[in-house]
Amino acid sequence: MKQQDNPQNAIFKVLDTVPGQLWYILGVASIVASLVFQLAGKKNWADFVGKWPPTFFAVGLYHKLVRPGQEDATEKLRQTGYQMNDAAHNGNS
Predict the structure, then answer these.
(1) 76 in a domain, yes or no?
(2) Into how many domains does the chain fold?
């Protein structure tokens, strides 16, 4: 089987389009949702939703360890934008 035909490559391509921070946000949000369901007396839903965070955190960790270059490049680009913005504002004063 060719490397391009591997179904895992399609999954990795989809995962690479999602920002790494989103997985951690989804993990925390599912913990909060589980707590809300527990407080509302919906124990089955709380247990069901409460099993999601490890998966979200694992995918986020994968994203961070296996694909670190994307987040680093995004952060560098953001910092460059801030520096350019500061330089433009300081130059016009």
Answers:
(1) no
(2) 1
- Residue 6, Cα to own-chain centre: how many angstroms? 24
Q: Which residues contact 13 (CB under 8 A, 6 or more apart)?
A: none
Which residues have a Cβ under 8 Å from the Cβ of 33 and sit 6 or more positions away? 49
Judge if pTM exceeds 0.70: no
The amino acid at residue 14 is V
Q: What is the pLDDT of residues 18-62, one digit of tens each?
A: 887 898 999 999 999 999 999 999 999 999 999 999 999 998 888
Closest by Cα among 7, 1, 50 to 28: 50
- Domain annotation covers residue 59: yes
The reported pLDDT for the residue numbered 34 is 97
Rounded to the nearest 10 degrees, how much is the dihedral formed by the CA atoms of 76, 82, 88, 93? -150
Which class for 34: exposed (0-12), middle (13-18), buried (19 or more C-beta within 10 A)? buried
Reduced to 3 states, what is the DSSP secondary structure of residue 87? helix
